[in-house]
Amino acid sequence: MSRREDYETRTEKLLQPIAAANGLSIYDVEYVKEGSGYYLRAYIDKPEGVNILDCEKVSRALSDELDREDFIPDAYTLEVSSPGLGRVLKKDKHLQGSVGQKVEIKLFKAIEGCREFSGELEGFDGTQIRILEGDATRSFRRADIAVIRLAVDF
Q1: What is the crossing angle of helices 3-21 and 52-69, to 10°?
Q2: What would the pLDDT profile of 135-151 be if each residue is shown by its tens digit?
Q3: Is residue 109 part of a domain?
Q4: Which of the listed residues 81, 105, 136 is the one where a domain comes to its end?
Q5: pLDDT attached to residue 85
Q6: Same domain, yes or no, for 100 and 53?
Q7: Which of 54, 60, 93, 125 is 20 to 30 A from 100 in CA distance terms?
Q8: Which residue, of 50, 81, 112, is where some domain finishes?
Q9: Do both 49 and 102 map to the same domain?
Q10: Number of neighbouring beta carbons within 10 Å of residue 19
């Protein structure tokens, strides 16, 4: 397990009881370096949507737990937020919860001259993601996908 994965796993364990006590679920936890700084991001969710008070309560409680445990030696910024409308679908649980919804896929390299596709998420397995694009099903290797997110229609 990498250092990043360890930090994310340990943070998620600390976050579990905090989220549960506030009627929230954990969408994702990520530890990333952007520019010269590190960020620890916790994405929380609930059926009716997350508001700023939810984020504030969770941020304060999680910050206290992280200070108590003190397992991340680097200086970092803690951010707690909703995953948003156009949320990235990284994990199997994200994909499973999004079957039947419209998604946008961006590939690392073009297929038939195109790097971006959209359609209804039909399903997925360990190596393939299938979308319904018009009347045709199109499959993509997970390894070829740079990002898959929910499509936002305004």
Answers
A1: 130
A2: 999 999 999 999 999 99
A3: yes
A4: 81
A5: 87
A6: no
A7: 54
A8: 81
A9: no
A10: 21
Q: What is the pLDDT of residue 78?
A: 98
| DSSP bridge partners of 148 | 105
The pLDDT of residue 119 is 95
d(CA 81, CA 101) in angstroms, rounded, equals 22
How many structural domains compose the chain? 2
Distance between CA atoms of residues 117 and 103, nearest Å: 8
Mean pLDDT of 94-117: 94
Residue 67 CB-density burial (10 A; 0-12 exposed, 13-18 middle, 19+ buried):
exposed
Question: Tens digits of per-residue pLDDT, 49-67?
Answer: 999 999 999 999 999 999 9
For residue 135, CA distances in Å to 70, 114, 119 come to 53, 18, 10
| Confidence (pLDDT) at 25 | 95
Residue 122 lies in domain: 92-150
Which residue(s) pair with 40 in the sheet?
Answer: 31, 78
CA dihedral 138, 143, 144, 145 (to 10 degrees): 80
